[in-house]
UniProtKB/TrEMBL annotation:
SUPFAM superfamilies: Metallo-hydrolase/oxidoreductase. It holds the Pfam family Lactamase_B. Gene3D superfamilies: Ribonuclease Z/Hydroxyacylglutathione hydrolase-like (3.60.15.10). Residues 72-233 form the Metallo-beta-lactamase domain. It comes from Aedes albopictus (Asian tiger mosquito). Coiled coil: none annotated. InterPro entries: Metallo-B-lactamas, Mito_Persulfide_Diox, POD-like_MBL-fold, RibonucZ/Hydroxyglut_hydro. Keywords: Metal-binding. This is Metallo-beta-lactamase domain-containing protein.
């Protein structure tokens, strides 16, 4: 008998006690410690369900998480294994050669290089990738204020092979923030809007705490709870999270909106080191101070 079966069996025995036993037995018949154990078992069962119900990637879907150690940025290479069409989300300028080499080694054609928003902590690699991999199309939201070959509005779709990536507007960190969703695979790429047990800053670059809170609660938290979430950054070594996890454990976004606004107003974070260089460069699709060919 499995652990889950034993829990359910034990629970049913408690519920099906005959009325005579209840009438002739003291209240201490079912010890408080036993009730606590059942509650803990139920909690563990709920957590196991949360973890095991996630969708496995389909055999023809390629996924690779990449990292830039200087800016703590995650980039994501997604591809259709059969058609060899691929997209790259949030590339970093200094890693463009690495990314281009990986794409070529895997035999992919990089169709789109997308940014979730106009970053302030690193320079995007989209412009450089267009040179390294001719035919690549740079993509960003229309509301971002940055240059690109293709602009996206809310709910527009980008296709690579048989897969679709939907752009979902989630402003608040910046006006142009997008969360990219691949519904079939049960994944979303949240940029800086939602981080693992955190969220992006709202104290510069059109940031607004109330807007960000609504974006998360009305757009990201309404995705299925088993959706895997991949942010643009993490500073503690975490690689992914889920809708269910963040709804339960995010220390900021589990507060009500006024509590969240108060938290964000009192972070007292230092001025971003790269913002004065990164934002102007990213307005130009990252075509700024490109590393010279060796």
């Amino acid at each position: 008998m499995t652990v889950v079966s034993r829990i359910l069996s034990a629970s049913s025995k408690i519920l099906l006690l005959p009325s005579r036993s209840i009438a002739t037995t003291s209240v201490s018949y079912i010890k408080p410690s036993a009730l606590v154990q059942v509650a803990q078992s139920t909690s563990r069962l709920r957590n196991v369900t949360m973890l095991t119900e996630r969708k496995p990637f389909s055999p023809d879907f390629f996924f690779r998480q990449l990292f830039d150690e200087k800016s703590w940025t995650y980039s994501y290479l997604l591809g259709d294994i059969n058609s060899k069409e691929a997209v790259l989300i949030d590339p970093v300028l200094e890693q463009a050669k690495r990314d281009a080499k990986l794409v070529q080694e895997l035999g992919f054609n990089l169709t789109y290089a997308l940014n979730t928003h106009m970053h302030a902590d690193h320079i995007t690699g989209t412009g450089y990738l267009k040179q390294l991999l001719p035919g690549t199309i740079s993509v960003i939201s229309e509301a971002s204020g940055a240059k690109a070959d293709k602009y996206l509005r809310d709910n527009e779709v980008v296709k690579f092979g048989r897969f679709e990536l939907k752009a979902m507007s989630t402003p608040g960190h910046t006006n142009g923030c997008m969360t990219y969703v691949v519904e079939e695979q049960g994944v979303a790429f949240t940029g800086d809007t939602l981080l693992i047990r955190g969220c992006g800053r709202t104290d510069f670059q059109e940031g607004d705490s109330r807007t960000l809170y609504k974006s998360v609660h009305e757009r990201i938290f309404t995705l299925p709870e088993n959706f895997r979430l991949f942010p643009a950054h993490d500073y503690k070594g975490n690689m992914e999270t889920s809708v269910a996890e963040e709804k339960q454990y995010n220390p900021r976004l589990t507060k009500d909106i006024d509590g969240f606004v108060e938290i964000m107003a009192n972070l007292n974070l230092p001025y971003p080191k790269m913002i004065d260089k990164a934002v102007p460069a990213n307005r130009e699709c990252g075509l700024y101070d490109i590393p010279k060919e060796e």
